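Q: Could you fold this chain for me?
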Amino acid sequence: MNPIFSEIKLFQVKADKLEQFEELIKKMAVTQKQCDGCISIKYMKRFFTIDGIELGDAPRELTKIVKCVKYYSCWEFDTKENY
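A: Sure. Below is the predicted structure, expressed as structure tokens.
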């Protein structure tokens, strides 16, 4: 078994800060990829939901911002020690 260590984070971004946050994660990802033992770093924006969807139906696209927009990051390292 491969001893990969992963960290998953949730970011909740206010609607008026979306552009700033997206520019920031572009810079952060470059720096984070250079860390010792880093295998990958990914940032994802939540576009869809499965709430209220019947089995077999496609996910429903999110169309409005209620409180914030959710972003997730997944950072993988070769070992827990390098994390």
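A (continued): The mean pLDDT is 88.
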